[in-house]
Amino acid sequence: MEVYYTFCFLAAVSVFLGFLNQYVLRAQATIAITAGALALSLLVIGLGKLGIVSLRGWADQLLPLLDLQNLLLKGMLGFLLFAGSLHIDLLMLRNQRIEITLLAVLGTLISTFVVGALLYWFLQFVGLPVGFVYCLLFGALISPTDPIAVLAIIKSLKAPEQVSIQVEGESLFNDGFGIVVFTVIFALAFEGAAPTLPSVTELFLVDAVGGIILGLAIGGLFHWLIGCTDDHSLELLLTLVIPTAGFSLANLLGVSGALAMVVSGIIIGNFTRETGFSRVSQHELDHFWNITEDFLNGLLFLLVGLFLITIDFQLFDYVLLVAAIVIVLLSRVVAVTVPFTVLKRFRKYHPYTERILIWGGLRGGLALALAMSIPAGHAMVQGQDIRHLWVVMTYGVVVFSIVVQGSTIAPLIRRSREFAEPEQLPEAAGD
Fold this sequence. Notes:
By secondary structure, the protein is an all-alpha fold. The protein contains 17 helices and 2 strands. It has one domain (about 65-425): Na+/H+ antiporter like fold, CATH 1.20.1530. It has helices at about 1-20, 30-50, 55-65, 70-85, 90-95, 95-125, 130-140, 145-155, 160-190, 195-225, 230-255, 255-275, 280-305, 315-345, 355-360, 365-370, 385-415, and strands at about 380, 385. Helix 16 runs antiparallel to helix 17 (about 385-415). The longest helix is centred in the middle third of the chain and has 31 residues, at about 195-225. The protein starts with a helix and ends in a 15-residue tail after the last helix.
């Protein structure tokens, strides 16, 4: 029951932070909760250093008790991805399928290798000879834009439709692909797997393609089940089974639960919504999943902020933290610019597309959970644990992207609304 009580109290704190945000910061809820949790963490750390009260021991027991890594990767992620994909317009997604595919696949690969190469060079420069495969591992975990962070912020700001669907579509699909890339490099780094084309292809097919096929099967099954009943409550309960039992089934089968939830959510949100739900049920569906999404988002980003208490920062960690932020931003510029250099030869885009995609490429709890999955003590360089270094850098990038990028992207999006969508321009091609 201790885990349940802790979960309940943290949930209450996240709700109250959201409530206070209405009257104090009046910022986007995700940013406000993360900032509030960071402020609380810094206060606790400061009180501990002054010897007034120390909650470090409590925090060290709290996060392992909640098991943030598994709580997100094997639990909350299914709910949040399913809820986010329910609102994806399939027609717009089809119109932007080339852009989203290039950003989610090619962009993630480009970012992984650019981050890995720059980090490898930087660490060699400062006298820390970390193996290239470990640098690639950091590139793989930090490159996918986090759908949880992105959807929570971009949706509330009402970005131009074309830009919004690209950002949302990329974030929903590239985390599944990014987890596959991370899994492959993790196997090379810690499990001694051979980096052969057949083994990498097998991992990709089982994880990514398997997840998509399972998502189609789950979406099709529940589309039929929901269409067989007119009971509003039962319809909502059936949708609740998808990110619970459906996501758990994907994890047990060893396929991408993230991609399965995205695919099934798109099916329910685009087909079942129109044919299986009445107008009243459609409203209840949106209302129920919006509340669920807001609640879990608040709890997740509270945990991200409180995670600061458990990190023992050394002087060198601050150097790595700043370097990681710069490296990740540079890699994001390359990952977005390269595909759009080609795409702009064939289609016309909103003038703010690339700027919003670059600055709106937020990282969140997913990257932190992946960093925490690295085994402690298995890779040491000059007395430094790779896991500790990667967690510190990941945390710095996550906090910077949510608090700094998330809070400063609003003016950029507001300026973007002054321009017409490319579909409204006569010279737009292919739309």
